[in-house]
Structure formats: structure tokens, C-alpha cells
Amino acid sequence: MLPPGSGSAGATAIAGGDYPYVFNNDTVDASFGVTSRLYLKQITPWGQPQGTIPVPSGDLVTSFSSKSEGALNLSSDGKYLSFIDYVAAPDTVDVSNANTPGVIDTTNPVSAAYYRAVASLSENGKWTFTETNAYSGNNGRAAVEAKVNGKYYIYTAGNAGNGSNPQPTGVVLGAGTQIMTPSALPEADQTPGQPTPVGSFNVTQLGDKADKVGKDDNFRGLTLYNGVLYYTKGSGSNGVNTIYFLDTTGTACPGGSGLPVAGAPLPTSDIASTLTATGLASNMCVLKGFPTVLAKSATDASDYPFGIWFANPTTLYVADEGAGDNAYSSASGSYTAAAASTTAGLQKWVYNATAGQWQLAYTLQNGLGLGTPYTVPGYPTGINSVTSLPWSPATDGLRNITGRVNRDGSVTIYGVTSTVSGGGDQGADPNKLVAITDNLGATSLPASERFFTVVPARYDQVVRGVSFTPGTDHDHF
Fold first, then answer.
1. Distance from the CA of 61 to the CA of which of 32, 109, 409, 461 falls in 20 to 30 A?
2. Where is the composition biased (Polar residues) (predicted)?
3. Annotated domain spans of the chain
4. How many Cα atoms are found within 13 Å in the side-chain-facing hemisphere of 59?
């Protein structure tokens, strides 16, 4: 039986606890997940192991198989590595869709409650954890620290809500983008208050009709570059799947799309007081040149942005995770939608000063093997009887990324792969860390460039984030 507090408490489980069969329970509990311990695996840029740093499981765990969380980001000064997950015990069911203790949604089918928390690892190996009531009913996905006027702030991205409409005030406040002050207290001594949103976007800024309050802010990726916070949205049927930035000037995008104002300060306070029945005040913009089409019209050929990395002020790499369509052809032996995608992989965008906007130069896919199933030692093969599709996963695109500029003028980008499969939950698929070196100055697709595997797919392991190690100046991950 599924346990009390889960999304389908009392329902009969259709699979036991063995990995990966346990994730077939997703068919009887749409919120199904099992918390798991986290590990930071330190490697050289070419993949040589340098040791493993366990995250204290008494402080923080991940929700396996929640595939959108786990981004790793370095602070603005490079001294701290940050990410966001859950304050719960390992092997707890349905935590990622549970409420937070300070924001209870009685319509959420998952009745349990757990704080989310930002973990920060300093360059000298010290852990700190900052709890929050944000992202009730859903998950925080990324966090980054920045030093502003001598004080550190935490900025996060994520999603909230797993209940009915209208959503409680706390759910709307706890969606999207948040700002926090890092805590040095043990988690047992922390008493987080109501969520503190720092940014919000509404499709009415683009002239579209308003949709579900708070769901336009279903953000996945987060990047801090040149004093500007950038966010991505790539899932859900509300809002626009595209690249955003937070505008503290109020002048950057009168029509909903624009460019950051040079010298604009990072925010140091929240916008919770602006909440009305229609949502929070809008202070975010679509980065000019990126899509503005509503997500409800998305197809397999649409963009699904996730991680972003700036090589310089005029070159931006965007990880596209693909549509997640696991349509399979036994005749070709491939996942057909993934194999046919022209947008999934690593998109290179270049700023056109004459046009005053960003433009897509090309998409790097060579070597990813989009749609082609791969075998993982120890992992099931053949057909999953529950889904009637193959267990073997295939790469569908990329999620979180990072990169570095090399001395010869090229750039090397490292990315976590997304997958499609016939597993009970595609987020449970063993995935990879891959890398590619690109000619920074190229504006047309170089034929010789291809991805290679840095960390191969392994049984009982998923890779979620990638970052350089704090204080190492891009020598180690």
C-alpha cells in the first residue's frame, strides 16, 4: 500500500521497492517519488575521479526521480557552490509534491509537509543550509549566492503548487523566483517565515490573456551573469517556454521583451507586498530574440530551454532538453520524436547589435545519439510490461550546463543529458555527463564538433547538476 501522506495514500502499489521497478508506481500515484541521498562527485574536466563528497542526509536529500532539480551554481565570487533540495529523511515517499510546513494547501493530494532548503558548500569544505517555505507542492530547482554591497543573498528558481485552483496565497508567493538571506544556524533552530518572491512574469505583458496565477513563473534554470539574473522556463502548459531576466529598473521591457539595462543593481528585497488577485507585480522580461509563443501551443519541434551559460556578453549557450516524447518505433529501434528533433541539444545564440536582439546561430547535436537507446550494465532490458515500451533509455537533449573559455579561443561546455524511455518515470533513467568543444567565433555549424561522454550512465545513479568546484578556477568539477 502507498503510505499515509503520499499522493494516493492507501492505494495498492503495483511495484515493490526495487530500483528501477519502483517507479512504475507513478501510474497509480502521479506524485510518486522516493527521497535519496546526494553526492557531489569531484572529477577533472576530462572525467578522472577525484573523490566523492556526501551531502549530509540529516540535512538534505533529493527526491528521486524528480528530474528538474539539482542545478549547481557558483556564487558571484566563486567561493560557494549552491543547490536546493528537501529537508526529509532518505526513503520518504512523495516529498517533491508535498506542502511546506508554513504553506499548507488542503487541496494537494500529498498531505505531508517538508521544508525545502538551499545547501551551500564553501571553498574550504564547510556546509550551511538555509530552509524555506517556498515551492510548496512542488520543487526548487536552482540556487545561487551573490554578494551585494558586502552582504550575501541567495536567489532561487523553481515551481509551486500541486492542488486545485485558486491556489492559496502562500503557493503563489512561493513560486518562481525567491530571495533569501543565508543562515548559519543548524536547521533545527531555523524558523522560516512566508516565502519571499523576488521576481515575477505574467503573459499579459506580451498582450496575451492571463492564465493560472503563479504558473507563468514555473522556472527551471537560473544563471547569474554580469550582475543580471537569468531564468528559463521549459515545461508546463502555462506561460512561455523561453529565457527571462529580472529587471530592477522597470524600464527594460515595456512590451514584455527587452534587454538588461547596463549597470542595473541586483535586487536585495522581495516583492511579496505587490501580490493581488491577479498575481505579483511583473518585473521580469523575455530576453529579446527568444520565443514569445505561449507554451500551450508547444509541439515536439518547440524549444524546451533548461540550463544556460554565457561564454561572453554576446554568446549564450542554451541547453534544450527536448519534448520528452517517448514515441518508439520497433522497426527503427529508436525513439522517433527524440531522433527527429532539430531543437534539442545545445543551442548557440549570438547577439546581433544591428538588430538589437539575440539570434540562434546553430544547435549542436552530433554525438548525443538523440533517440538511440543505450544499454546500462545491470539495468533492465526488454519491454517494461507496465508501459509496453523498452526499459533502455535514450538521450532526448540536455538540462543543466556549465562551461569555460579555453586559451585557444574555443569553449568547452559540459552538460547533463535528459532522457526518454519506457521506464515508469523517465526521470529515473540513468543519464550521462557529456561535453563538447565549440569554436567560439563560429556562426555556422562546424561539421567536426561532437559530444563525448565524461561520466557514463550507471545503474542506480542519476546526474542532475554540473559546476566547477568553488575556489579552483575551473580546474576541477
1. 109
2. 191-203
3. 34-298, 302-477
4. 22
